[in-house]
Amino acid sequence: MSFTVGQYIANRYHLTARLGKGSYGEVFKVTDVIDLRSKALKTIKDGDQNSAEVRSLNALSATNGIQRLFDSFNLNAHLVLVLELYTADLGSISGKQRFSQRLVSKIGFKMVEILKQVHSAGILHRDLKPENVMIAWDGEQATLRLIDWGMSAVFVAPNGQRVRVRDHDYVYAAAPYTSLALSLGLACTEFDDIEMLRNMLMSIRRLYPFNDESPTRQTALKLQFQNHPENVLKGRNKFLLPFAREYEEQKGRGVLRYDALLNCLRGSAKFNESTNFVLHFGRNNRISLQ
User: Fold this and answer.
1) What's the pLDDT tens digit per position in 137-176?
2) Range from 15-24, 152-161, 172-181, 234-243 that averages highest in pLDDT
3) Is residue 1's pLDDT more than 70?
4) CA-to-CA distance for 108 and 85, rounded, in angstroms?
5) 65 CB-side CA count, 13 A
6) What is the pLDDT of residue 286?
């Protein structure tokens, strides 16, 4: 079955626009004919209700900063997820807007707060990048939402025991934004989410220290950064150096201290941590974030 604009799915969701298409499926904007709200509908070929994405979204349903799952069902060899719809993602905005030190530090601060909650629920995201951080806007203020939980995994069981995370299904080992450990094929821990957040903060500052066509070279560049982050985080980007160094020290000790990471970001640039973000809409549908 192919999903096309104009269709009604499950006699409830009217497909009004295609938002994106990938190797695993598509994302549509839909109107829910029951509550008349616009939502996102994601199709995943050969997916099932017991997928990591469904389990994680259900487990994190009460967590701030996580995309809301309204409905899920199987239809003609596809898993269909009905999700909260957002305005834009950090990747598309940062590609057109130069993010200030203050804005990047505030984004990092809010994301560490979100990851702290996610990890306290025993879940890892494993796919942090600007395109997976969306902006939710209520007409006045904007907040961050972490989406795309298809690579998520449980690392703490309900009884509190740590679980070794599977690694045979991790398909992004060769991606520049992936952590060093995952590039080396090691099992994922909560440190890897923080490391990918660090990489994300650099990318929205238009710093791409690990971009290389060779996966081997990418890994070597990540190792160099681990040992000497000051070679990359200098000049106008030096404000991220305390965060990078604090993370590496914590990783070396094997104890993740979120409050210390938050303090590093708090001190890196002046921002109001108690307020949300603001979206501005300009000509030609240009969106900027403050």
Assistant:
1) 988 899 999 999 999 999 998 898 998 887 666 778 789 9
2) 234-243
3) no
4) 22
5) 19
6) 82
**pLDDT for residue 11:** 95
Task: Give the pTM.
Answer: 0.94
The structural architecture, per CATH, of the domain 88-281 is: Orthogonal Bundle (1.10)
3-state secondary structure the chain: CCCCCCCEECCCEEEEEEEEECCCEEEEEEEECCCCCEEEEEEEECCCCCCHHHHHHHHCCCCCCECCEEEEEEECCEEEEEECCCCEEHHHHHCCCCCCHHHHHHHHHHHHHHHHHHHHCCEECCCCCHHHEEEEECCCCEEEEECCCCCCEECECCCCCECCCCCCCCCCCCCCCCCHHHHCCCCCCHHHHHHHHHHHHHHHCCCCCCCCCCHHHHHHHHHHHHHCHHHCCCHHHHHHHHHHHHHHHHHHHCCCCHHHHHHHHHHHCCCCCCCCECEEECHHHCEEEC
User: Phi and psi (nearest 5°) for 289?
Assistant: -120, 140
C-beta separation of 49 from 107 below 8 A: no
By the 8 A CB rule, do 29 and 16 touch? Answer: yes
Strand partners, 288: 280
CB 127 within 8 A of CB 115: no
What are the residue boundaries of the structural domains of the chain, listed by start?
Answer: 8-83, 88-281
What is the homologous superfamily of the domain 8-83 according to CATH?
A: Phosphorylase Kinase; domain 1 (3.30.200.20)
**pLDDT for residue 49:** 86
- Of all residues in the chain, the percent with pLDDT exceeding 70 is 98
